[in-house]
Amino acid sequence: MTDSDADDTGTAADFDVDAWREELAAKRAEKDEFFASHPHSPVPEPERDEFDGLAYFEPDPDYRVTATLHLVDDDDEAIARMETTTGGEQRYRKVGELTFELDGETHALAAYRPTGEDRETLFVPFRDKTTGQQSYDAGRYMDLEAEQELSDGETVVVDFNLAYTPFCGFSDAYACPLPPEENWLETVVEAGEQKPELGEH
């Protein structure tokens, strides 16, 4: 996860934009195929015949930033209780805080892992100024690749072009954690998935 080639402008020095665009297009095509036909698709089965792909913001490398991870102490105060879209609650362990530059300003997002699970990826739910307008009302998620042994102060690539709508945006059958207030960004993030057009969720 560490990006040792990051420069001080918040971008990765060896970033190949063309390769990145191709990889992003492939991931989006694969996800559209899954949503359209897979038995575990969150799109309700009666609506799959009309599903013609997810809506996305245009790929923008400016929304691929390098963040610094600041770890938090592993104690009771690191447990976050997130409300869900169905009125319940889910518990996550706050791993640390990611600070980064975007649109000329410094921002921060908390990164989490589920309690009781030995998962490597970091879960980053967030809201921004597109939430409820161009993007899903309950916010969006990012899953960042990470190793179990994290180092304080290491750099992490955060690509908002990979931000996605939780499954509850497509079906009320899912209970999705709502981004806590500390992850409400006071900026516009026109990257990643846009608001689903199927149904009213």
Automatic annotation (TrEMBL):
InterPro entries: DUF1684 (IPR012467). Pfam families: DUF1684 (PF07920). This is DUF1684 domain-containing protein. It comes from the Archaea. PANTHER family: DUF1684 DOMAIN-CONTAINING PROTEIN (PTHR41913).
